[in-house]
Amino acid sequence: MQRSLWRFLLAAALLMSTLVRASADDGAIIDRWYSALLVADRTELSDLLSDDVRMKLDDIGVVQSKQDFIASIDEWQGAVAGAAIRHRVEKSEKGETTVLACYDFPSNDTLMRETFIVAGNRIVASTQTAVAQDCSGY
């Protein structure tokens, strides 16, 4: 009986270790995302996105493919010049991470809630929703 309990506890510990590691990996991917987004790094952003990613922009009713998103980087690069992006994870479980992100643009700021689904070290889905027209709630 003692041996069975030991095996069960060992299996549970290994499973928890895997889940914690996966969550940490997702956090690293999210950190890389915001760093690349801030400097409009097409190569890094492209590497972080799965080929079949769907990026939903709730406020404007648009769903972008990877190609659509990468094509919009020229416009984004102009908008993000001189900006800062602060983000913090609100929750992360089962491959889904919800982030509160403050986009500090030179002339205004906006607070967003963004949800990422990560699988195989790639973002496979993202949803972005405005929370406020300023970052006072950050």
Low-confidence segments, given as residue ranges, are 3-23
Compute the average pLDDT.
86
Number of helical elements: 4
- Give the strand order, joined by hyphens, for the main sheet: 2-1-6-5-4-3
Task: Work out the strand percent.
Answer: 35-45%
Shape: globular
Task: Report the CATH topology name.
Answer: Nuclear Transport Factor 2, Chain: A
Terminal Cα span: 52 Å
Secondary structure: number of strands: 6
Q: CATH class, please?
A: Alpha Beta
Structural class comes to alpha+beta
Task: Summarize the structure in words.
This protein has 138 residues and is an alpha+beta fold. The termini are far apart. It has helices at 2-38, 42-48, 66-71, 73-80; strands spanning 49-57, 62-64, 84-93, 96-104, 109-119, 122-132. 42% of the residues lie in helices and 38% in strands. It is built from 4 helices and 6 strands, in the order ααββααββββ. Helix 1 runs antiparallel to helix 2 (42-48). The protein has one domain: Nuclear Transport Factor 2, Chain: A. The model is unreliable at 3-23 (pLDDT under 50). It has a 6-stranded mixed sheet. A hairpin with a 2-residue loop joins strand 5 (109-119) and strand 6.
